Each structure stands twice: as C-alpha cells, then as structure tokens.
Amino acid sequence: MSKLTADWKAYLIDLDGTLYHGSRMILGADRLISDLHAAGIPYLFVTNNSSRTPAEVAAHLQQMGIPADEEHVCTSAVAAAQYIAEQYPGSKVAPIGENGLLEALREAGIEHDEQDPHVVVQGIDRSFTYEKLTKAARMIASGAHYVLTNPDLQLPSQDGLMPGAGTIAAAIKAASGVEPVVIGKPSGILMKFAIDRLGLHNEEVAVIGDNMLTDMSAGVNAGCGTILVLTGVTTEQNLEQYVASTGIQPDAICRDLDEVRKLVCGKII
C-alpha cells in the first residue's frame, strides 16, 4: 500500500460499492467517516446517482449508520444543473429523469420546455418509454444540446443489476446521432464541481472509490490522487485485469475501509 501523499488535504468519496452495497453498510464505513470528521479532514460524498437529492442521499447513509448531511453530498444531477446554468445561461431544458434531477434543476432556477428546449438533460429514468425516446431524439437531432448526468450502464439493486442512465443514453445516441456532454464519473466535470466546493486545488484532493473505470479514471482525469478500495467492483481477483484495461495504477490500494482509515487518518488520530 502506498504512503499517504503529503499534499492530500481532502477526499472525494464514492458511495455505492465503497461505503455500502444497496442498503447494507460496508464494514468500517461508519468509522472512516467519523474519524475524518473528528480529525477535521474535509471530505465530500461524490455520486453518479442522479435519482436522489443530496438530502435523500444523506438520509440513506444515516439509515445505515454512516454519519452524513446534505452539505457533504455532490450528485451528478446537481453538477449537471450547475453546468447547464453556466454554459447555457437562460436556457430552457427538457429533463428526462427522476426527483434528484428535477429538484436540482428547480433549485438552479432552470425552466422546463418540453416542446422546443435549448437543452435535453438526461439521467436515470425508471419510467422511460418509447415515446420519451422519440421526443428526446427528435429534439436533439433538431439542435438541442444533450447533457447526460452519468454514463453508468448498470445499477445495483436488491434483486440484481438493472439498466442505468448510460443504457438509456445509448438508445438516445443511436436514435439522434449525437454524443452527450457527460457530467458524472469518469468525466472531470463532476470532479471539478466537487473540488470547487472544497476550495482546493486538484492536486490537494484524493478520490476514494471501488471502481477503476469510473472512480479512479475520474480522479486521474481531474488530476487528483487516487485510493482504490477493494470492496466493490474491483477485487483482488480482477485488479490486474482492470489495471491493464484502464492503464491506471492507483496511488494507493486498500483491501478494506479500515486500511483506508489508517492511510488517511492514521497520522492524525
């Protein structure tokens, strides 16, 4: 395991697969967050999930016994709303998504237009239909900008994997012929949003996550440090395969969250 880089002052922490699986906390998640808080080390929860608001994400963590408040949560939906407000000021959008995305757009003061929008913004939508696909493809092909909250092809659920926002996006891309601007990991846009929230430089921040394709790639793309924890997608068995396929060697590799806690808090607590 690599030694903690002295320049790391804060941490961007993935959620599903890193701190929990579905509704079950991963061993040591509560201790990690409690110790970061006690040591006064800044951190944010950074998630590609666009279906929940920050308050709902915090409540989900609290229900599992992980200390959390909404001010510590950065979602791809909130980052997408800010991106649209900054890149296309005054634009009206046609949203395809759930409460987390709709609330983020509302809080950003972005108006809806389901007929002739400037932007189509899409996240996970578990009520997605052929009609929605047709409308989205036509609006984008006619010139509307296409913004995607996150490219995840699959989502874990209690009953197994289910299609994610990226799967819906694959259909829209095929039908419209247009590639979206991707906000969530592995894109650097969500990471920049979170780093700006911390008020730090990218080299002062490290990403903690379980997924080489999203978390570690996002950290590298954003110029951050990377701490891989083998609690989710990446395991001891498939680690070499992921290193070979991504070309990424994380700065630190931890078997569990107690190793992460020792790495980031050990010299302080």
UniProtKB/TrEMBL annotation:
<protein>
    <recommendedName>
        <fullName>Acid sugar phosphatase</fullName>
        <ecNumber>3.1.3.-</ecNumber>
    </recommendedName>
</protein>
<comment type="similarity">
    <text>Belongs to the HAD-like hydrolase superfamily. NagD family.</text>
</comment>
<dbReference type="GO" id="GO:0005737">
    <property type="term" value="C:cytoplasm"/>
</dbReference>
<feature type="active site" description="Proton donor">
    <location>
        <position position="16"/>
    </location>
</feature>
<keyword id="KW-0460">Magnesium</keyword>
<keyword id="KW-0479">Metal-binding</keyword>
<feature type="binding site">
    <location>
        <position position="210"/>
    </location>
    <ligand>
        <name>Mg(2+)</name>
    </ligand>
</feature>
<dbReference type="GO" id="GO:0046872">
    <property type="term" value="F:metal ion binding"/>
</dbReference>
<dbReference type="Pfam" id="PF13242">
    <property type="entry name" value="Hydrolase_like"/>
</dbReference>
<dbReference type="InterPro" id="IPR006357">
    <property type="entry name" value="HAD-SF_hydro_IIA"/>
</dbReference>
<feature type="binding site">
    <location>
        <position position="16"/>
    </location>
    <ligand>
        <name>Mg(2+)</name>
    </ligand>
</feature>
<dbReference type="GO" id="GO:0016791">
    <property type="term" value="F:phosphatase activity"/>
</dbReference>
<keyword id="KW-0378">Hydrolase</keyword>
<dbReference type="Pfam" id="PF13344">
    <property type="entry name" value="Hydrolase_6"/>
</dbReference>
<feature type="active site" description="Nucleophile">
    <location>
        <position position="14"/>
    </location>
</feature>
<dbReference type="InterPro" id="IPR023214">
    <property type="entry name" value="HAD_sf"/>
</dbReference>
<comment type="function">
    <text>Catalyzes the dephosphorylation of 2-6 carbon acid sugars in vitro.</text>
</comment>
<dbReference type="InterPro" id="IPR006354">
    <property type="entry name" value="HAD-SF_hydro_IIA_hyp1"/>
</dbReference>
<dbReference type="InterPro" id="IPR036412">
    <property type="entry name" value="HAD-like_sf"/>
</dbReference>
<feature type="binding site">
    <location>
        <position position="14"/>
    </location>
    <ligand>
        <name>Mg(2+)</name>
    </ligand>
</feature>
<feature type="binding site">
    <location>
        <position position="185"/>
    </location>
    <ligand>
        <name>substrate</name>
    </ligand>
</feature>
